[in-house]
Structures are given as C-alpha cells and as structure tokens.
C-alpha cells in the first residue's frame, strides 16, 4: 500500500532528467555558504536530491589554515592549489551526478572571474549538466562586517585563532579577491544566472531554462542573510493530551495555562535583547491560548494566525486515543508505523502532506526575521526537520516535549539549537514505534501524531 | 449593490460568459465568495491568503507588449492558488464608455489631446479606479490587477501614493521589449483577438495599432524608480529584474510564476489515454486493449489532420506559409497513456513522460462497484456528494490533492513554447482543464472528456477558448469515462461540461431517449459557449 503512496501521492516537486549545477559567485562574506547550505536543505526537505561541493574544504585538505597571502593572485603557488581544489570539487560533482543520480549540486566557491565561470560552464556542458549562476553582490559594509564576524567564529579556517587577528586576516583575504573580482554582466548574458544585489533588494534573473531552476530562484528570492532566530514551541498541555486523545480543538489544561503564563518570561530570557518578535500560531484554540499572555505582554509583539500551522489532520482518528485507533483500525495503525512519513490518515493527512502545506510558511519564515511559532507536534517536527536537516525517516519520530521552548539560529555552516525548559510538568506525548496501550494511562498519557 | 457597476462593464464586454458554462474561460467572471480555489492550501480569517494584505498590481508598458496576456495569466494562477484576484482592463472601460460600435476620439491615446478628450479619459479612469477600490474594500478582494499603459514615472508615483492612502500596496509589472519580432508577433495576435478590432480589416487594424504605439513612444519612460516595487520583464521573460519587492510571499510567488510565463501563443490539446486490455485497475498498470490501440492511432491521425487543416486555413486567409508549430506530447507514466502516444511518437513527435500526471489515486474505491462503495462507505459517499472536489475516500486522493500535486505541471505548461498534447487519465485532464479555463472547483470533478473527442484550448490575450475535435470511428464501448473511476455519481448541477453538443449530435439523441451514457449525464442545452463559437467563426 505505502509504495503506491510514495509513487503517486503529492510528492511536492518532482523532476526528471534534470541535472543542475548551481554555481555560487561572489566575494567572501556575502553569505554564499549560507545560501548554498539552505538551498540543499530546502530541496532535501522537498525530496529532491541535492548536495554542496565546497571548494574551500577541498583546498583545506592541502592548506588547512592559510593566511591572506595565499589568496593573492600574485602568489602562483596559492593560485595553483586553489585551481586544483576547484578541479577536484567539479570532478566530484560530476561523479555525484553520474553515480548517485543527483539532481541539484551547489558549487560553493567565489568563482569570481569570468574565465573561471566559463571554465565551469564548459565542464558542466560537457557532462550534460545545466548551470545556474547565483551571484550574491553586497556593497553594504555593515552587512559584510556582520558576516565577517560570523564567519570568523564559525569557519574551520580560523578555528582556535584570536578573533581580532582572524577578522583582520579575513578582510585582507577579501581585498585580494576584490582585485580580480568581476561581477556578472552583459558579456555573460548567455549564462543562466540570478544576481542578488544587497541581499535581494534588487534581483536580476536571466535566461531561466526550466521549472526547477525557477523554483530555486524563487527560493533564493525569499532568503536574506540578516542575523535572526526562530523560536518554536508546542502549545501548552491540552485537555486532549491529558485524556490521551489526538487531534481535536481542546482547551489547554491548568498546567498548560501555567506554561502560557510562564512563556513571556521564558521567551524574554532566551531572546536576551530587545529584538521585536512576531508570534505565529495555528487557528486552533490550544495554540492561541498558549500565546495569549505573550501577545498581551508590554513588548507589543504582533500576532498572526495561520491555518497552515494547524495540526496534522488525523481524519477519522481525530479525537480518538491510540488504543481506540489500534482497536478500530488495526491495519492503519501498523501501516503508519511502517512508513510514518507517507502514511495518510483516512480522511486526513500524512507528514508529506503537511510538508507541502507548510511550504508557504517556510518561504515566509525565510523572508522574516525573528519569529516565535506556537504550534503542534507534527507541524513543529516538519519545521524543525527543515532547519535541522532531519531525514524523512526520522523526522516523524522525533521527540519534542511539551512546555519546552526551542531556539534555532541559522548560521553559515549549520543551525544552532538551544532548548529552554519551563519546568512545568506535562504528560509526555511521545509514542515510540510499535507501542500502543501503555500510553493510554492519563497520568502517563502518551499521544503522538 | 455597487458590484452592479462592475458587472455591467463585464456583461457588456464581448467576452463575458455566464457562470453556468465551463466551455469558455471564466477568468473574467466575478469570483464567488467563500469558495475554495482549485489549489488553495489553506484559508485565513479575512479570506486573504498569506497575510499579505491587499495589493494592486499595475502593469506598465507600451501597447503590444503582452500586458493583457500577462494580467490574465497572472490572475489565472493567483486564483488557482486561492487569492481573490480580478483584472481591470482599462480598455474594457474605454469601450464600455463610448458604447457599441463607436470609437474613441482620434486623439484619445495622444498625450497632447484636446480638453474634451482629456475629460473623457479622466472619467473612464475614475470609473475603473472606483471599481478597483470597491473590489478591494467591499468584496474582500486581495489583488486587483490594473491593466493599463501607465507610461510616466510621475503618474506611477502618484498612483502608488494613492493606493497607499487606501492601505493597498502597489507592485508594478513592466513588460519591456527590445526585440521587434516579439512586438510584431504580438501585434498580430492582439489584432486578431482584441475586442477593439472586432469588425476591422486586418490591415487597418495593424495600421491603427502601430499608429497608436508610435503616438506613445516619445512619452514612455521605462521603470527606473528604485523607490517603487517593480518587476521588469524584458523580452517576454528572457530577463527579469526585480526591485525592492519585499512586501510579501506573494510578490515572490508572482516572480516565480513569471519566470515560467512566455507570451507566445500556443494551443493545448487534451486527449484521454486509451482503454486497457485487462480489467482496469489503478495498481495493475495494464497495456492498451485492441480498441485502445485503434483509438491511439485514430486520435493521432485526427490531430495531425486537424493541425494541417488549421494551417491551410490560415494560409488561405492570407497568413504566412511557415512550417507548422512544433507539437510536444506529454503523457503520464502509466503504461496505457504512454502507449496511446506511440502512434505520434512513431510519426516523429516528441513525447515526454511526466510522473506527476498519474491519475487520481482511488484508494479503497479501487475496482469496487458503485453499489459496493455505497454499501461499505455510506458516510464517505455522503461527504463526497457534498463536496466532490475536496473530499477524499479512505486512502484516496481528492481532486484538490491532485491539483496541488499538479502545480509543477501547470508551471511547465506555461513554460512550454510548442503546441502541446496532453494524454492522461480523465481526472488529470479535468484539473488541468480547470486551470486553463478558470473553472470553479466544484465544477472540476464533473467535467467530461469522452474518448471520441480531442479538446483544443486556444489562447487569446483576453481569455482562452475551448473547442472539440471529433475523432471519427471510435468504438462505442470505450467512449464513456474509464471504468476505474470512482463512479459515485455527482448530482448534475446544470450545464457543467466543457463540451457543448449541438442538437444534431448523436449523443444528444442518446440522452433524449433517456439512456444516459454514464452517471455524470448532464443536461445539454445550447448556451453562450455555442454563441461564442459562432462569433469566433464569423470573426475568422
């Protein structure tokens, strides 16, 4: 049964015979790695096979911690080593397309000269790979500096070094690139490219060839590289949680109410400064109730309700306990454990369905800055899986306890996670694979979507 | 109700169609309130999606740059997503104002027009703006597309300011074109299909049109206003430049759509996959039956013949003797759809298989008779009858699921420059047809695609039109909808079939004798679709 689901049911975006190399272009500290990493995550989340090939990490194999001199074009040795690194990365990329049926590869490097870009195009053309150049051009000093500070603390090139020295060296490295940097211009109008100027303030898109390219461009347009965090919380414990029932539109329990009251302080302590947050909730009572003290706090946070953040629809099982589901729909119960990501409740949704309906939310999240989302277990798992790159087989089984605030901060190389516990007791709603009955005790009432 | 004003304009527009017909593109119909759009993922309290607020999309560009096409295409896509959108063509208001058969003053489009002409222009403008505000303020509209030339930077700035006063964000979309060939091709197609030129001779129309363009050229300013939100499409989408469009998910979504849009005119044909050999089943991917193979060949032959005839007719009318437009065939990956394309493939046509185009998953209804489904799932049947578009049987897909799954196909459909034949299961054809003809979600599940016809969709800048091409000699038994369908009859809800048969059609007779061919039998009556066909024929 499930195999048919995989083949036919709402696999968001599919492609065929398409192989695209996304070639990053831009000076250091323009957010290229951040963009590359995000595109890969986004595509993987939509079930499209994607991988980054970072030329820097090939170069690092030979030259782990180079100084700025290494990047001086007059330095013949450095030049040769850097070209060798590019060669190796492109060769690996081509092999990946061939052997692993890759769909989108990202070549993460500065590719700062026309000659280099032409060379990459020839290599790709020869191997039947489409090219999409993505230039991030930013002359806003403040943004660049922010990025330098970020990179110097997270880049492997500067691991264990004095931050001041690292920042200085890095700026010198950028100067060396600036000497030879050529932006994409009219000479290259035969290339398919997108040029993001000042973090998407202005975008020029040239000669897009197919749907998947347009999809990538669409995603890129929604990105920004300003520092930001996202807070995720489930609603406070609900009366349905207490009874071990799933779905429904129940009120929060007295302990849930305690969490709702504790949330403003919990958020304040995790934010740490006076940043303005926007609150997103679902349209269900339990998330709105949970966020209401936060929304009423003197900070004056804006609040938006999204239907798309509503809990996974469990169809005919809505309002039942796990035991009841196992009794009434034994086959379904088992089918769900076999392939939870693709299993769709009768008359309801699967995790895959939720991912599709969350796509506009993800786009909106990418566009926004500091957002706190109060939502439901399955929805939170999907959003979390996007930011933390959790594979599809695992994400539906992830444990996300009640009364816990999760703070995610996207960084150039990965997303940083911090959890803040409210220390307000709640039932655990986690149900491990194969288990049923023991979760039905109210005091230990597990429920899971 | 003030909507009457708008309704009046629309009703007097030559392309207005009654809601009861799915034969003609509904893109200029008034959207219904509270109805979900075909691919709408969720709804918000205000009825406005994406928390985006209200947006005025304002076109900018000289005549013959495809602004109207762009406005209509964009409206089609946005409505498909569930965004309440309407297009306000300033041209419609102009025609409405001067009345039938009359023309605007000669200097109407001139910048240095006489005082009385300027007054007339302002009056027309005001009416159009009033309707836009009414739509946004009182009809829960989210996006108004204002289709006009808007040639001057100063005018655009004041327009944006005026909209801002009404709490409406403005997004300008300029269609700029530096390629003479694209402009000429566009003039030709605009000349043929714009209501401005009904009853004109082709030469006069071209002359007038070009005069109108050259009168405007000295006063046209391409968009450079970095303080405004704008999207500039250059040479029909070859390049797109976006400035400061950061006010919402929607603006990016629009760019995404525009990246796939082109302004070349292209026909789309729909044909069913042939019938298969074994008992039809969703899971068993069976080959074509004997009749199916025969159907595939006849369908292919009919289409080739039809295209050749169309081309000849064009040449006879004085059109250029150019090689016919390329035809690409898309099929689903189901065996019988692929095999249906075999004849065309052997005749040198390019065939692409698209996995997203596989039919609606029937879930538990697979291979079950209607009686058994009614017996086993009475509650589901009741739900299905109440909402056949959104309801899904256990383990099945709903039409809505299918529409969401088909979104990439819809964007690629817009991308495709060749003529396109789509061979797929009826459920897929219904949804794609629903997109191209802006059908209501509720009408989509009951659209009919009998096997003895190929449906042809002809684009024009104002709207699309559908015609049918009869395939002669198709075996009677494979004409009704495929047996593997979920055969729960949807209560007939008026004339909701894309195919309007004239009284001489044998099928009408069958219907009249009280033996409906299938559960979807729909009362057939001559309607305005027919009328439009006649109009088209006269015009041609």
UniProtKB/TrEMBL annotation, chain A:
The keyword Translocase does not apply. Residues 12-227 form the 6-phosphofructo-2-kinase domain. One of its GO terms (molecular function) is 6-phosphofructo-2-kinase activity. Keywords: ATP-binding, Hydrolase, Nucleotide-binding. Transmembrane segments: none annotated. Substrate binds at residues 234-241, 286. CDD domains: HP_PGM_like. The active site is at 235 (tele-phosphohistidine intermediate), 311 (proton donor/acceptor). GO terms for biological process: fructose 2,6-bisphosphate metabolic process; fructose metabolic process. Gene3D superfamilies: P-loop containing nucleotide triphosphate hydrolases, Phosphoglycerate mutase-like. The keyword Lipid biosynthesis does not apply. InterPro entries: 6Pfruct_kin, 6Phosfructo_kin, His_Pase_superF_clade-1, His_PPase_superfam, P-loop_NTPase, PG/BPGM_mutase_AS. GO terms for cellular component: cytosol. Coiled coil: none annotated. Its EC number is 3.1.3.46. In the C-terminal section; belongs to the phosphoglycerate mutase family. This is fructose-2,6-bisphosphate 2-phosphatase. The lineage of its organism: Eukaryota, Fungi, Dikarya, Ascomycota, Pezizomycotina.
Automatic annotation (TrEMBL), chain B:
It holds the Pfam family 6PF2K. Signal peptide: none annotated. Residues 502-516 have a biased composition (Polar residues). Residues 45-264 form the 6-phosphofructo-2-kinase domain. Residues 497-527 are annotated as: Disordered. SMART domains: PGAM. InterPro entries: 6Pfruct_kin, 6Phosfructo_kin, His_Pase_superF_clade-1, His_PPase_superfam, P-loop_NTPase. One of its GO terms (biological process) is fructose metabolic process. The keyword ATP-binding applies. Keywords: ATP-binding, Nucleotide-binding. One of its GO terms (cellular component) is cytosol. GO terms for molecular function: 6-phosphofructo-2-kinase activity; ATP binding; fructose-2,6-bisphosphate 2-phosphatase activity. This is 6-phosphofructo-2-kinase domain-containing protein. It comes from Cladonia borealis.
